[in-house]
Amino acid sequence: MKYILINIFFICLNISFAQQQDSLFIKKLYQTSLTQGHSYENLRELCKNIGARLSGSSEAEMAILWSKLKMENYHFDTVYLQEIKVPHWERGTKETAWWQTDKQKNPQKLHILALGGSIASDGLLSGEIVVFNHLDELKKADQSKVKNKIVLLNQAMDPTFINTFSSYGACAGIRFSGAMEAAKLGAKGILIRSLGLPQDQHPHTGMMAYNDSIQKIPAAALSTEDCNRLATLASKEKVTVHFELDCKTLPDITSYNVIAEIRGKKAKEIITFGGHLDSWDAGEGAHDDGAGVIHCLEALRLLKSMNYQPQHTLRVVFFMNEENGNMGGKTYATWAKSRGEKHIAALESDRGGFAPRGFSCDGSASHIDWLKSIAPQFKAYELHDFEKGYGGVDINPLKKEFPEIALFGFVPDSQRYFDLHHTEMDVFETVNKRELELGCAAIASFVYLIDRNF
Amino acid sequence: MKYILINIFFICLNISFAQQQDSLFIKKLYQTSLTQGHSYENLRELCKNIGARLSGSSEAEMAILWSKLKMENYHFDTVYLQEIKVPHWERGTKETAWWQTDKQKNPQKLHILALGGSIASDGLLSGEIVVFNHLDELKKADQSKVKNKIVLLNQAMDPTFINTFSSYGACAGIRFSGAMEAAKLGAKGILIRSLGLPQDQHPHTGMMAYNDSIQKIPAAALSTEDCNRLATLASKEKVTVHFELDCKTLPDITSYNVIAEIRGKKAKEIITFGGHLDSWDAGEGAHDDGAGVIHCLEALRLLKSMNYQPQHTLRVVFFMNEENGNMGGKTYATWAKSRGEKHIAALESDRGGFAPRGFSCDGSASHIDWLKSIAPQFKAYELHDFEKGYGGVDINPLKKEFPEIALFGFVPDSQRYFDLHHTEMDVFETVNKRELELGCAAIASFVYLIDRNF
Fold first, then answer.
1. Which residues of B touch A415 (CB under 8 A)?
2. Is the pLDDT of residue A5 over 70?
3. Which tens digit of pLDDT belongs to each residue from A209-252?
4. Given A222, A243, A282, B401, which is the most exposed site by the fewest CB atoms within 10 A?
């Protein structure tokens, strides 16, 4: 009995010592990020020297080269490109829209952005608009009401969700399937209400889908203010909309994920963390997802700067093509499987560079228990949100290949994200230096704890 | 025994029913704030139609009239002004500074703002600068090093505190007592490093103090970038600084706190909540503290919009003169005492209009226990921070008059506050609509819970 008690005493002492060691290490990570961080200047370079970087664009290519060089200059153990094939859609140069009524014959400008993947309009597309306030309304509509018209799908994101990703999730179907549903009923084009919470004149682009068995029609996002105005007008009189898009889909093209590693003692056991290097072609992809890739790059740099010798291989992946195909994430997962690696955990940062609130876990009950168990380590850093939840689009395919893997999502504050998401407003200036640095430190600390505990 | 168990059962049922009722009420407050809120447009009016409103200024007077009219239009039970005397300091129209060295003879502009309460420079003040990196260094300095020079007190806010109010608190002494310490050693003027975290060219003003037994010297805040440059230069060569201020202190002037009430069943038992209507004269006082007064006005409006009949009198106070004298807060406390009122709790919002994180409590152990007990009601709204802490400058004098009172502080995210605080950057555009609305709902919910539980 005495020996058992002595053993328990020493085990407790060890745990407490380990926690204290972790706590000091995490403190140092935060201090380094906040006083000698590279994240803000790296994000500035990516946003200002390169800018928007849609898959297949020359800017995406530049971003790949920039990332690889940056990683090499940090002297990680390994830096390499992983070849992938990505879709290649281009917005083109014509993208205009306006409206007219019998009373208002002068054309009035509308603020649009073609949806990613949309076909061109083949010259000017003109038609009466028909307004639906919900995707379900459109689905149930009578063909006679829609045929040969331009659908305005004016479903608004619900502002009463506290986390704005929930509002987005509940509404994103209008962008994804609006064109298919409208085309089924004979519409000749569709404008969807931008997936953004503010009432303003900034359209939000994003991915849409076609179905080969349904007519393809041009599709664009309209600013929320324009939507409000058109919907009000159309409730009183006939409104004609004209729009032109000359976007096009080119053949798939070669591109790359960019990868950097610090090898662990168990070199074939991998912790992947990353974001996506591609962005939409409006703005600079600062929050989506410049912040995410910079978070992870900086996290690896911070760990290296403290001479941390990991148990597992720490691998940062800058995924390509999250926005319109997820070929980076899909290719990475099958490649990882084919290499016979063991993937124990992956983390993604793809919710912006805002003040950290916590981490979510898409994994087993014991993974979620572990997540909750580390919450106290983060209380002093004002992270409180440690719950079951989504990991991320890029890391999601790993689940199929490695059913035992724990996927984690970095959770920053969500309130401002859908002011900017997929718009020309998503620029470097909207990222706050401290908020970004705190995110880097949180992710470095989290990866450290995975490495120590898994 | 059976009866006791039945009683316990019904008590539990009641508690659970009450919690459910609270939970539904809070949900409705949030929904109303987020979908039919007035806060953002009210803040826009205050910032854009009036702007900065330093005590004693005509803008402060306009803000008082605007606030009273706004409250009257909401048809609260009572709206009135409470007369107070406030200091009246004016910045004047001359506020320039530049530096020169033997090598750089062309005058180079510096970015300064006179500190609140500073005397004028009586024409151009010129002198060699002597740099101190900490207030303690200045205190210990030899008189010969300082005499007839201009002190540059270059103590930086420590970025490694996670909550930026801690960084501010640890450094604010340089602004408050820098001039007194420098004057003791014979300095003829002082420039202090701005109390802001970013490296930029925006000086941060704020209150300073003199002591009648020590020579008064002119004092201004210098931008952090200018501080860095001057400190580097001065470590290598002699740097001369010239500056001119024509600010002045005028006789005290009559002003007002603006008050609105919904009478409770126990009319003489008061819950006070408010912010301060005055602001510094740079920027528009959007976060400091336009957001705070609007938070509380909107909270009262939200409660009224739901026909809430409070137990206690709910009193919103727009305090005047928090920034340079706190005469609003001091006068309010003694006036409240003299009226024989019972003050059970007070809440202040004076930390900006950022995303809510929680509430702090300056009160007894049982008050803090109560605060922690309500935390679960706020979890779904992403508030997690329910800890012992400061209430606020305006409500603080209530503690002396009502030793039993519980003081609470609204705690929003602190990361961006000291980018803007007391600068020309503190403008309406930096306040996010949702973040502001969430703050209003959080405060309305909190006041509701105090009213129900106290």
1. 355, 432, 434-435, 438
2. no
3. 999 999 999 999 999 999 999 999 999 999 999 999 999 999 99
4. B401
The verdict on residue A441 lying in a domain is yes
CB contact under 8 A, A382 and B381: no
Mark whether B54 and B109 lie in a shared domain.
no
Distance, CA of B52 to CA of B40 (rounded, Å): 17
pLDDT of residue A7: 72
Tell whether A223 and A313 lie within a shared domain.
no
Q: What percent of chain B shows pLDDT beyond 90?
A: 96
Contact call for B31 and A160, based on CB within 8 A: yes
Q: What is the mean pLDDT of residues B436-443?
A: 98
Residues from chain A that touch B198, judged by Cβ atoms under 8 A, are 433
B322 is catalytic: yes
The pair of three-digit structure tokens given for residue B411, joined into one six-digit string = 């705690």
- A contacts of B34 (beta carbons < 8 Å): 159-160
Mean pLDDT value of segment A94-108: 96
Which CATH number is B346's domain given? 3.40.630.10
Q: Are B80 and B127 contained in the same domain?
A: no
- Token digits for B199? 């490296």
| One domain for residues A103 and A243 | yes
The answer to whether position A7 is within a domain reads: no
Is the model's pLDDT at A1 over the cut of 70? no
Regarding whether B362 and B276 lie in a shared domain, the answer is: yes
Distance CA A278, CA A54 (A): 5
Section B41-62 average pLDDT: 98
Burial class (CB in 10 A: 0-12, 13-18, 19+), A410: buried
Same domain, A150 and A37: no
Residue B48, Ramachandran bin (φ over 0: left; ψ between -120 and 50: alpha; else beta):
alpha
Burial B265-280, CB ≥16 within 10 A → b, else e? eeeebbbbbbbbbbbb
Structural domain of B171 = 92-246
Q: Which of B57, B61, B87 is nearest to B252 (CA)?
A: B87
Write the residue in B30, B415, B438 that is nearest to A432 by C-beta.
B415
Instruction: Say which of A159, A163, A415 has its CB closest to residue B432.
Output: A415
Query: CB–CB of B407/B391 below 8 Å?
Result: yes
B166 touches chain A (CB under 8 A): no
- Position B18 pLDDT exceeds 90: no
Amino acid at B186: G
Q: Does B5 map to a domain? A: no
Do B287 and B435 belong together in one domain? yes
Which pLDDT band holds residue B5 (cuts at 50, 70, 90)? low
Contacts of A381 in chain B (CB under 8 A): 162
Instruction: Give the mutation candidate from A415, A419, A435, A445 for the B interface (greatest B CB count, under 10 A).
Output: A415
Q: Is residue A67 part of a domain?
A: yes
CA distance A374 to chain B (A): 16
Residue A49: pLDDT band (50, 70, 90) is very high
Examine the fold and report which residue of B199, B215, B246 is the final residue of a domain before the chain moves on.
B246
Mind giving me the DSSP string for A418-448? HHHTTSTT--GGGS-HHHHHHHHHHHHHHHH
For the segment A125-141, the average pLDDT, to the nearest whole number, is: 98
pLDDT single digits (tens) A182-198? 999 999 999 999 999 99
Which CATH number belongs to the domain containing residue B212 in this structure? 3.50.30.30
Does A384 reach chain B within 8 Å, measured CB to CB? yes
The residues with which B240 forms a beta bridge, in sequence order, are B100, B128
Q: What is the pTM of this model?
A: 0.96
Whether residue A30 and residue B198 make contact (CB cut-off 8 A), yes or no, is: no
The nearest alpha carbon in chain A to B358 belongs to A382
Are residues A81 and A97 part of one domain? no
User: Is there a contact between A355 and B415 if contact means CB atoms under 8 Å apart?
Assistant: yes
Per the structure, the count of domains in chain B is: 2
In this complex, the residue of B31, B162, B413 whose CB is nearest that of residue A413 is B413
DSSP class of B287: I
